[in-house]
Amino acid sequence: MVKKPHEEDLGCSSCNVSSKTKEPQWKRKNILISLIAGTLLSVGLYFEFFANQYTAAQFLFLAVVLVAGREIIRKGLLSAWRKQLNINVLISIATAGAFMIGHGEEGAAVVFLFFIAEFLEDYAADRARESMASLLKLAPKTATIKRGKKEITLRIEEVKVGDIVILKPGDRIPVDGIVVSGVSSVNQAPITGESMVVSKAKGDPVFAGTTNEEGYLEVRVTKESDETLLSRIVELVEDAQKKKSTTEAFIDRFSKSYTPIIIVLALAVMTIPTLVFGLPFNEWFYRGLVLLVVSCPCALAISTPISMVSGITSAARNGVIIKGGNFVEEIKNAKVIVFDKTGTLTEGKLELTDIVTLNNNSEESLLKIVASLESKSKHPLAKVIVENARERGIKLKKVHNFKSITGKGVKGKIGGRIIYAGNRSLFKEMKVKLPLASIDRLEGDGKTTVIIGSKRQLIGVVALMDKVRDNSRKVIEELKHQGIRTVMLTGDNERVARFLARKLSIDEYYAELLPEDKVKKIDQLLNDYEHVVMVGDGVNDAPALAKAHVGIAMGTIGSDVAIETADIALMKDDLSKVNYLISLSKRTMSIVKQNVTASLLIKGLFAALAIPGFMPLWLAVAVGDMGLSLAVIANALRIGNIKDVV
To answer: Which is more confidently placed, 139 or 182?
Structure first.
């Protein structure tokens, strides 16, 4: 692969995985070089084999080398000068050797085929890399800004934090911001990988690169164009592509030792048969050249990084940010997956689940009384109760002499009566008889109860519960089917934890844990099971996420802190992505093994055929180098076909 003049990469060019995309002009230049060199080679072959113009043919073959091989030979010479042995050195030696022994057509064919091989490899490899860079193109270059009563169009770089961006139906959203006016549906697939559109109204965040589907929105800009979530995702993925997995590091070390060994072996093939057995020098010199070319470790070296890049970019397109190839490799080894409860297995949002009326009160009257009382409170339970009443169209009553009773509940005067709302201990102190059967049943289901009544008579009981994610049970079942043990860690009480663990069929659970307690449990699990993955909400569970082999943060869209702290970030609250990750990891490492095995076996076979003279030089390049490298890349690109499994 001939690179642009300013690029001084002296290694196996197709083995370098860079997130930078090539310019169209550079691609056009290489197509032109291919056409010119191909024409010169074809005419040269005609002159040599059909027109008996041997001298003219040799000049044409030399022209092919000058046109297509200039950069290859230059880099080969520089590498040799720096004592760096790579494919450019091998091709340069093979080309020069072919001309020296009167096989100019072979030397020209080697350079031409290698140029084509590297160009095609680079083009194919770009498909795995450009998917992330192309995300940035989703954000428009300009934005329509509202200034007073006027609308002006600015380049995206000129848009400042605090500006109001106008979005019409079908517009791509150019920046991150908060909706200040309007209602619409937004397609967030480039960020979260979700197929369903998301409703947006005043106060909701929107992100660059997403699409306003149907309504009119006004958005206040919260981040500069180079600080958006989209640009941060691309930056993280590009950084991840540079981090090598254990397998990649091993292949790199192997390749560095492999190349000098092959050169020594080729020199032995060139010299020993002639010096020891008196066999023809030209014949064995040619076989040594073939061995040099066919044994190039290019396909072997690219087999792992191109697979990792394909896996990481595929995950990003599905709303999963993996921050290094080592995490792709590690997650398939998981023996235990640990889940935080709130915000992970559950949605982290309380919902009113039960209304139990007592003493001939109706549900509406009970909810009106408790919601009126709780409207004065700032407790999270109170907010849910009040919102539920308002959704039902219940008009609240006036409350006088409101008082919060710490750790127990609240009280206030409604319609001339003092009404209490709180837990068991509040009413036990007042010696009010409680409907223990109903309360025990509700609390036994992991629900939190609020008892409502006066000192003389109870009105009823309402129960609230953190909503379990719809797919939590299915995810746990799939993990257990794969032989992975599941563990839940929570700061919630024993009763709630036990109920949820039973409901989801979780193998182990630990309740009433502080953040430092979670870290200790992770330590214990690491000792017991070795490979541990932790799934949490990204911020509260940061210490435990950091301690596990792989930390996965849930629903981190818009959360810079969570994205930074986790090894893997799930942009959407979709627990099924955990199973997707395991599937992706297994598929990626399977393809890595396929590529490495195929490279070693085919290279070995071709090398064995080269020594007895069954392998011509041009075929060594066309199949043993170009064909094998393209096959490795094509196989790696299949990783992108992995979809969610739950």
So the answer is: 182
In whole angstroms, give the CA distance from residue 135 to residue 275. Answer: 61
In sequence order, the β-bridge partners of residue 144 are: 153
3-state SS, residue 488: strand
Q: How far apart are CA 43 and CA 53, in angstroms?
A: 11
Average pLDDT, stretch 538-547? Answer: 74
Given a contact cutoff of 8 angstroms between Cβ atoms, the answer to whether 217 and 200 are in contact is yes
- Do residues 625 and 91 lie in contact, with contact meaning Cβ atoms separated by under 8 Å? no
Helix boundaries (H) for 243-349: 246-277, 281-294, 298-317, 325-331
Write out pLDDT tens, residues 277-296: 999 988 998 898 888 777 77
110 Cβ contact list (under 8 Å, min separation 6): 91, 94, 95, 98, 293, 617, 618, 621
Of 340, 466, 537, 541, which residue is the catalytic one? 340
Distance of alpha carbon 171 from alpha carbon 187, whole angstroms = 11
Q: Domains in the chain, start-ordered, CATH in brackets?
A: 13-134+238-310+587-641 (no CATH), 142-227 (2.70.150.10), 321-346+470-583 (3.40.50.1000), 347-468 (3.40.1110.10)
Report which residue type is found at 532.
V
3-state helix, strand, coil in the chain (%, to 5): 55, 15, 30
Q: Is the pTM of this model over 0.90?
A: no
Q: Give the pLDDT confidence of 430-449 residue by residue, as tens digits.
A: 988 888 888 888 888 888 88
- Gap between the Cα atoms of 587 and 636, Å rounded: 10
Q: What is the pLDDT of residue 13?
A: 39
Q: For 137-195, where are the alpha helices, taking DSSP H only?
A: 189-192
340 flagged as catalytic: yes
Both structure tokens of 399 = 């409350």
